[in-house]
């Protein structure tokens, strides 16, 4: 268990080395610096950001189960419906994260069609 945690910390740490805070400051409001870079056509920009986005989607996918009921009730809906949406979004985000982790190194492969929001947006770190 401790070894798995160490591996995740190492992967996240390496991913963060490739994410430039200066670049994140230059992005327009409403966009996530990681997602913007992961959708780039330049391989040197896309690959590390896609890896970081894959780790974020896989690591924070469970937050959809918590966020969707809150979002649904704020819009006047039913929390149970939000919970169902959260389960669906959780599965979609986890699958997207796994797909991105498996394909981040392949030039020209983009995963943006699978989900339109950012895992970091779900936990409040991005407007996307």
Question: What is the structure about, briefly put?
Answer:
With 128 residues, the protein is mainly alpha-helical. 68% of the residues lie in helices and 0% in strands.
How does the SSE layout of this entry go?
Elements: H1 2-17, H2 21-26, H3 33-38, H4 43-60, H5 63-74, H6 79-103, H7 119-122
Helix pairs in contact: 1-4, 4-6, 5-6
Structure description:
With about 130 residues, the chain is mainly alpha-helical. The protein has one domain. It has helices spanning about 1-15, 20-25, 35-40, 45-60, 65-75, 80-105, 120. Residues about 15-30 have low confidence and may be disordered.
What key attributes describe this structure?
68% helix, 128 residues, mainly alpha
- Which strand-content bin applies to the residues? under 5%
Question: Could you say which overall geometry the principal axes of the C-alpha atoms support?
Answer: globular
Number of helical stretches of at least 4 residues: 7
Main sheet attributes: strand count, strand direction, barrel closure: none
The proportion of residues forming helix, as a percent range, comes to 55-70%
Report the structural category.
mainly alpha
Radius of gyration: 15 Å
Distance between the termini: 33 Å
One letter per element, helices H and strands E, the order comes to: HHHHHHH
Q: How many discrete structural domains?
A: 1
How would you state the average pLDDT, rounded?
76
What low-confidence regions span 5 or more consecutive residues with pLDDT below 50? 16-29
The strand count comes to 0
